[in-house]
Amino acid sequence: MSTQIAAQLYTLRNFTKTPADIAQTLKKVKSIGYDAVQLSGLGPIDTKELHSILDGEGLTVCATHTSYERMRDEMEAVIEEHTILGCKNLAIGGLPTAYRKDADSYKQFAKEASALAETLAERGFTWSYHNHSFELEKFDGRTALSILYEESDPRYFLAEIDTYWIQHGGGDPAQWIIDLKGRIKLLHLKDMAMKGREQLMAEVGEGNLNWPRILAAAKEAEVEWYIVEQDICQRDPFESLAISLRNMQAMGLR
Fold first, then answer.
1. What is the CATH number of the domain that holds 102?
2. Which of these, 1, 251, 225, lies nearest to 91 by C-alpha position?
């Protein structure tokens, strides 16, 4: 599969509260130059209506962020929604709070999520874990993120590495990507800039992350989707998405 760029709609969550908002926002995303999106942060909308809007704009759903609890407790409904959307890649946006206690709780999640992910795989879907920086806390010399990947089933428990959050936690985004080769279809790209002593989320290419090394690692790891996300923008979020796209294309991504 060739490299593809997508916009993470969480970036635009303030503009996706109603079905009318969603339709207008998706039209703007397409006009910026994106052909794919990751669904997250949307207000209530019927899945068939959402699919119709996406299809009308010529937008592919590369992945979603769906809560772990919904995947676990409402799997059939989640599968039906993703089937309607034509989306095969599910990811959770964050680790449920109950599993963030200690090394044992991370091990427990790795085991439970592996079983859930295997069930999804049997139905034709992938499951990925999206990190923040708290998983870079160490327990007996191992980061929580290492525990999650080392104690889980590598066939089913896949990664959605977030470059900003790895850097924020003191990690090396490129090294994490390389180390997860074969387990990483989805990659979240956001940059880190500085304002005085404050770390800011920035458009890809507008901060200090080592993009040549990150993108080389992603190519080696055979990442399929390069997904632009910016939780907090310093300017209009649509403009931020446009800047990231232009910079990524200048770096050779298409």
1. 3.20.20.150
2. 225
Task: Please tell me the distance from the alpha carbon of residue 44 to that of residue 244, in angstroms, as a whole number.
Answer: 28
In contact, 128 and 160? CB cutoff 8 Å: yes
Sign of CA dihedral 65, 51, 237, 17: negative
Name the pTM for this structure.
0.96
- Residue 4 to residue 2: CA distance in whole angstroms: 6
C-alpha dihedral, 211 to 212 to 218 to 224, nearest 10°: 80
pLDDT of residue 3: 61
Residue 1 has pLDDT above 70, yes or no: no
Residue 76 CB coordination number (10 Å): 8
Q: What is the pLDDT of residues 183-240, one digit of tens each?
A: 999 999 999 999 999 999 999 999 999 999 999 999 999 999 999 999 999 999 999 9
**What are the tens digits of pLDDT across the range 104-146?**
999 999 999 999 999 999 999 999 999 999 999 999 999 999 9
Return the H-helix or E-strand segment holding 37: strand 36-39
pLDDT at residue 254, rounded to an integer: 83
Are 223 and 186 contacting, i.e. CB atoms less than 8 angstroms apart?
yes
Domain of 187, in residue numbers: 4-250
Tally of domains within the chain: 1
Nearest to 159 by CA among 222, 244, 243, 232: 222
Tokens of 27: 């039209």
Alpha helices, H only, 33-162: 47-57, 68-73, 75-85, 103-122, 144-150
Residues found in the chain: 254
